[in-house]
Design brief:
Blueprint lengths: L1 H42 L15 H23 L2 H10 L8 E12 L2 H5 L4 H21 L3 E6 L2 E6 L8 H25 L7 E16 L4 E6 L1 H12 L10 E5 L5
Parallel strand pairs: 4-6
Antiparallel strand pairs: 1-3, 1-4, 2-3, 4-5
Helix pairs in contact: 1-2, 5-6
């Protein structure tokens, strides 16, 4: 009887141990699988589809999930202020030389909205912010579609360039295609604005090609991947020169230098 009870107790303990091992293994596998899936989204800089990890009954996994979720929230804020397309390309290049300052020929574009000061005076602060957010989203999508880099937003204007960090032999053509895409987008948007009784918006675009210094430029606490040089100033002046072009009902005025070909 004692031997039989010992055998039964041994089998029960073995089954309990097997169940606990199965439960722990299943918990580990599920949590690690969720972590791997979320990490792949982060690697692609696709923070929108990266899900928060659920809490775990295992302390170590729960600590890891909490740390990952905090990191994900920080990255979502981070992408709001950093050009996602630029970071993707730098990650794809995958070497430090791609962000070191070098001299390179690029094509630079500046855009701004004609009469924006007068237009903004008729709107509230929230309306101005909403208008600019919608406008920049439209302009940036045209630039991203041609693999351009949005350098910065300046008031109502955009500065972008082609030819860095990746070398593009057709950077001038890409910039011109982006400008034409902006033209079509502005025509559609102004048609919508006219139907809603709003004032149409007129866009000025300046494009110039030439040598610049490109790379990480900034101070110890804030660095930007940007370009500097007279080519940048020339593109900006071309955009400003658009003020001298009569409106004639055009939604967009595009000025391109002879060096862009």
């Amino acid at each position: 009887d004692r031997i039989l009870r010992a055998i039964v107790a041994g089998i029960a303990i073995m089954l309990l141990a097997a169940f606990i091992a199965w439960w722990v293994g299943r918990t580990l596998t599920r949590q690690i699988g969720l972590l791997a899936s979320a990490a792949r989204s982060v690697r692609r800089l696709d923070f929108e589809h990266a899900r928060h990890l659920p809490p775990s009954r295992l302390r170590e996994l729960d600590d890891a999930a909490a740390a990952f979720n905090a990191m994900l929230e920080g990255l979502r804020w981070f992408e709001t202020y950093v050009p996602r397309s630029l970071v993707r390309r730098l990650v794809r290049l995958g070497h430090v030389d791609s962000i070191q300052s070098v001299e390179r020929e690029v094509t630079v574009m500046f855009t701004d909205i004609a009469g924006f000061t007068t237009l903004s005076e008729r709107m509230t602060a929230l309306e101005v912010a909403s208008f600019l957010n919608q406008h920049f989203t439209m302009i940036d999508s045209c630039i991203d579609a041609e693999d351009g880099t949005v350098d910065k937003h300046m008031g109502d204007g955009v500065m972008a360039f082609w030819g860095a960090p990746e070398v593009e032999d057709d950077h001038g053509l890409r910039a011109c295609r982006a400008a034409l895409a902006m033209l079509h987008a502005m025509i559609r948007d102004n048609d919508r604005r006219r139907q809603e009784g709003a004032v149409p918006v007129r866009l000025r675009v300046g494009i110039h090609t030439g040598p610049v210094t490109v790379g990480n430029i900034g101070g110890a606490t804030r660095v930007s991947y940007t370009i500097v040089g007279d080519t940048v100033n020339t593109a900006d002046r071309l955009c400003e020169l658009g003020k001298q072009v009569p409106a004639d009902g055009n939604d967009v005025v595009i000025l391109i230098s002879g060096e862009t070909g």
